[in-house]
Amino acid sequence: MGLRKFVDKIKPTFSEGGKLSFLHSTFGGFETFLYAPNIVTKRGAHIRDCNDIKRVMITVVVALIPALLFGMYNIGRLAGFTDTSCAGIFDAFLYGLIEMLPMIVVSYGTGLAIEFIFAERRKHEVYEGFLVSGLLIPLVMPIGVPLWMVAVATAFAVIIGKEVFGGTGMNVFNPALLARAFAFFAYTPQMSGEKVWFESGAIHNFLGLTPNAAEAATTSGATALANLGDFGALLPEGAQTVTNCAALDAFFGFIPGSIGETSTLAILIGAAILLFTGVASWRIMLSVFAGGLAMGYVFQATGVTDYEAYYHLIVGGFAFGAVFMATDPVTAAQTNAGKWIYGLMIGVLAVLIRVINPAYPEGMMLSILFMNAMAPLIDYFVVERNIARRKKLIKNVK
To answer: What is the pLDDT of residues 67-109, one digit of tens each?
Structure first.
């Protein structure tokens, strides 16, 4: 193929001794993105498999597409494009695409630039881990967050959350969640305001996309999760719904919220892709939902909350975190028993924080980050328990 021949032709320029050898890692990153590398593992224990980091990351990106596409449409719908005709849906999606695309570009541009710089300085290959983080970061942000804030949060996540630990595969905390945590605590008003969309103006007017301000006023506002804390309901009394059922609105995603977290249905489609391909752990996913639902029922049964326990699973970042964040193979528990404990604790802590802490209605981010730190300790005790049990069995046999 022409592209393969071109890459092979310029490769010596970037190899050791070439004029641009200082960009060897950068060139290698682009080459392995286009083609599978022609090298094999030379040392250490390993398993030969057709999958590599690139293929795994691409699978996760594909699984994120349903949530991304619906999030773009929902941005336009909340902005006032509530016409359900084909033309109206397209206008809503186009509006959301225009709002969302700059955030994705800034996230990838900032993160990849830092990744390439560190790779060149350390003289190692560029890993594909940021293919997922670069998309996750804008998906967990409100649509109105300034672009410079996305860049700063991304830089913090990549440098402090990953590179200081040694790069991809060595980080303790999920980089995308660190970006959101940094933005939330450093720039709280922009991250937790009532309005989750904003009117950019010029480019939309140029394309003839003018939202209906009156309709936008009835569809935007506080998130469903904030309403649970304030009113004990998904929507304030008398609020307009799309499906005539607030719970269905929350499940399908017709509610305000961060871009990727609103549609539980779209998230579950992504979960099915991850489970079918074997990329994510079903034990972690199931245990997170089980832990959250169990804790919700505890609060409901004791009278602490007066709404359905399952509401916690379909609002806020619970489903998105359970499917795409908690299952991160680098930061999650590795043992099978540890995965159950890890997932259950995430679900329990998320609902506990939501209900007990009135100043912080969304608990999923903090619960996952906390359990990221606890994951190695969980695995340690699971392994030690297994060793002790096997020693006992051996002793009994003797």
So the answer is: 999 999 998 888 877 777 888 888 889 888 988 999 999 999 9
Distance CA 263, CA 243 (A): 14
- Burial per residue of 72-104, b for 16 or more beta-carbon CB atoms within 10 angstroms, e otherwise: bbbbbbbbbbbeeeeeebebbbbbbbbbbeebb
Q: How many CB atoms lie within 10 A of CB 6?
A: 10
List CB contacts of 266: < 8 A, sequence separation 6 or more.
66, 67, 69, 70, 71, 253
Q: Where are the domains of the chain?
A: 1-48, 53-221+256-279, 280-398
Amino acid at position 385, single letter: R
Hey, what are 159's tokens? 């440098």
Residue with tokens 């590599």: 52
Backbone dihedral angles phi then psi of residue 22, each to the nearest 5 degrees: -70, -10
Instruction: Report pTM.
Output: 0.83
Residues 166-213: pLDDT tens digits?
777 788 899 999 999 998 888 877 676 554 444 444 445 545 566 665
Tokens found for residue 234: 């998904």
Burial of 123 (0-12, 13-18, 19+ CB in 10 A): exposed
Asked if 25 and 126 touch (Cβ cutoff 8 Å), the reply is yes
DSSP 3-state percent helix, strand, coil across the chain (nearest 5) = 65, 0, 35
